[in-house]
Amino acid sequence: MELMRDLLDKQVFDRRRVKIGKVDGVVAELRRGKPPRIVAIELGSITLARRLGARPGEWMAQLATRVGGKRHAEPHRIAWKKAQDNGLDIECDIEVGETSIFAWQDWLRDHVIGRIPGA
Amino acid sequence: MRTVNLEHLAGRRVLSQRGKSIGHIEEILAEQRGDELVVTEFHVGIYAAFERLSASTIGIAMLDLFRLRRRDGLYRIPWDKLDISDPARPRLLCPMTELPGWKGQKDLRE
Amino acid sequence: MAHPTRAVPHNDRHFPVGCLCLLLILAGLAGCSSSNQVAQQSRTAASAAQTVSMVLDAWVEGAAPSAYATAALHSVGKTLADVEAQIRSAEIAEPAGRAGLTAAVNSLSVAVAHAEAELRVNNRTEVKSAQQDLRAAMRSLAAAYTSAFGPKP
Amino acid sequence: MKKLLEISLGVVTSVGGFLEVGSMATAAQAGAAFGFQLIWAIVLGTICIIFLVEMAGRFAAMSHHTISEGIRERFGFNVFLWPLLVVLLVNFMVLSAEIGGVAIALELATGIGFQWWALPVALLAWLLLWKGTFGFIEKGVSVLGLVTLCFVVGSVMLKPDWTAVAGGAVPSLPAHDAINYWFMASSILGASISPYLFMFYSSGAIEDKWDESHLGANRAIAGLGMTFGGTISIGVLIVAALVLATRGIDQVDDYHQLPLMLIPIFGFWGFVLFVASLAIACFGAALEVGLQQAYLVAQGFGWTWGEDRKPRDDPGFSAVYTASLFLAAIPIVLGLDPLRLTIFSMAVTAASLPLTVVPFLFLLNDERYVGEHRNGIISNAAVIFIIALAFVLAVVTIPLQIFGGT
């Protein structure tokens, strides 16, 4: 598997085929004397900002904590065991509702979009 | 558990032990071993002329399109020969001569 | 780093030549443009005048609402005022030619203002007379243009 | 039969996209200033957009991904960031110009200044996106768009010398005002080869759930739809040439001049037809560009998106088009002249083309996405030609804008 071509930036779906984001990052565990093991994929604006540089990454992390509270300081991770590559996209055996990935969209829905009639 | 984000390696310049740039990381290969997906090798593209362009994916695509990349222009670096603890500065852990794809490149005098 | 000094004077010589021809180009652009700028402005005035006459024709035949016609005349009137100011300020060799142009454009502005005033009060007959003044002013502009620049391209 | 109905996707994309304030204004200016001489620019632009739209539709039908998703997934986020930011900015200007176009039409109709109409127009467009489905917008705009045929009817009624018109379709060097000529040519190409056109079309193909069976219809729709838009633009140019140029009006830089094109042909109905055509074409384009802003962002970051969903189900997507529409109305509320904004946004569109056209060369030749329906020799040659044209436009347009622009 070519990680850059076949995994990074691919569309991620949850168990009910809901689009939850793109593979913004790939996390590998460094082990002494053994090849690095893919442990998780990362999603979210913090991971993306870090790809632009260390400083943008810090700004985004601070912004996320100030807006969403402490638990948003770290990017969202999905264990690689739960992920499955079906050619073009990545399907994850999780419920997006259980994760905090949609936290900002839910906040937007409850506080802004939901308030407008006919939403 | 020490972890690293592999996406930071994309397009990074790889330095030889003597600090000389040998090209940019283009791809990271991984294989399924048992129930683990592990990194097996890193591909570094050799573009003597278009150094800047080869740092971005669209640059590589253009170079490939116009056949500007030498067919053998690829180092396949095994996982244990590249130190990626600091993804911003991947370093080679073995001399140049041991790299597969090395054919005594004239312009990369050691 | 065997011979850095020899390289330095080399590119000094280039520098003044480069900026010299840049100045030449800019000067060239500015020089020839002032006279054809006035020609351009006069053509804009002629085009604007034709627009006004079309709007008035349409209004007289009842094919254009008054609100639109008034707004159109007001807007074109502003364009004519700008053109008049630009021609007056642009210095070209034949002041006589320019005086004729400025006078023609001025009479155009006056005719347009007159027509606009009549339009606001829906006075059809007065608008028709304003149309005559406009056509006269357009003829004089055309005459002033040919005397200043020769036949229209 | 259903596929023929889908012709409306092509028609709406072209009426909403191809035919809008940009193509109408540039065609009118070109007709007034150079007669039939610039018809070739519209023909060239139409041929290029037919290729790009056909490829965008084929890409979406085969891979169930849109062009924006393809760019992000194939080249990565760091590369995708550039087209994302540039196209968002260009679309913002075009959207503002479209809202301005509708506002002008309402000012011409009612006499109330266009600044007052900007927010109501944005609100109506937002309401349609908020409550309407993709199919409703698609069918509604394409049916209303038929009114713009009045330009074609008008140009036929003027009995132009058709050999001269055909002659105009062959590129020729200008006799006078060379800088202005090339500026108008680049603006026309910018107005016809717009990134939001093929990106919206690929998103529309997903909304309409296209698959491999739609490839034939896709080619017909792309061809018919874009030709429909191109024909009307040529109609506008012919009418401007035969009505304005013959009366000595060779500079169209005030929107009050535009209705004069149809009045001599249809009398008072000419005024009404012009106002209706401008309002509908620009309103269709405003819906399309506003929606495309949301598609671009949602697809780029992988959110759930879809016009047929209720806003509650895709809050991110709906928030983007809501913000885009009201932000784009601001320049018009502040009184920025819509015609000048239009000409400027067409030039900037032309300059931004390479960012969105270069990826076609790779996406449409990647069998993981399009399987065996990869680009043939002709399509690849067309893409390479369009890329070359895009780079020329990108280099040439801005300096031309400074020297030649109205």
What is this structure, in a nutshell?
Chain C has 153 residues and is mainly α. Chain C has helices at 4-60, 66-89, 95-120, 124-149. With 406 residues, chain D is an all-alpha fold.
Give the topology.
The complex is a heterotetramer of chains A (119), B (110), C (153) and D (406).
Chain B: E1 2-5, E2 13-15, E3 21-33, E4 36-45, H1 57-65, E5 74-78, E6 82-83, E7 91-92
Chain C: H1 4-60, H2 66-89, H3 95-120, H4 124-149
Helix pairs in contact in C: 1-2, 1-3, 1-4, 2-3, 3-4
Chain D: H1 2-5, H2 7-18, H3 21-34, H4 39-63, H5 67-75, H6 77-110, H7 114-131, H8 134-144, H9 150-157, H10 162-168, H11 178-192, H12 195-207, H13 215-244, H14 263-266, H15 268-301, H16 315-333, H17 338-363, H18 367-370, H19 377-404
Helix pairs in contact in D: 2-8, 2-12, 2-13, 2-15, 3-11, 3-13, 3-17, 4-11, 4-12, 4-13, 4-19, 5-6, 6-7, 6-15, 6-16, 6-17, 7-15, 7-16, 8-15, 9-13, 11-17, 11-19, 12-15, 15-16, 17-19
Description:
The complex is a heterotetramer of chains A (119), B (110), C (153) and D (406). By secondary structure, chain A is an alpha+beta fold. Chain A has one domain (3-115): SH3 type barrels (Roll). Chain A is built from four helices and seven strands. By secondary structure, chain B is mainly beta. Chain B has a single domain (6-94), classed as PRC-barrel domain (SH3 type barrels), CATH 2.30.30.240. Helices cover 8% and strands 35% of the residues of chain B. Chain B is built from one helix and seven strands; from the N terminus they run ββββαβββ. The longest helix of chain B has 9 residues, at 57-65. Mean pLDDT of chain B is 79; it is low at 104-110. With 153 residues, chain C is an all-alpha fold. Chain C has helices spanning 4-60, 66-89, 95-120, 124-149. Chain C is elongated. In chain C, 34% of the residues are buried. Mean pLDDT of chain C is 77; it is low at 1-14. Chain D is built from 19 helices and no strands. The N and C termini of chain D lie far apart (47 Å). The longest helix of chain D is centred in the N-terminal third of the chain and has 34 residues, at 77-110. Chain D is globular, with a radius of gyration of 20 Å. Classes of the chains: A alpha+beta (119), B mainly beta (110), C mainly alpha (153), D mainly alpha (406).
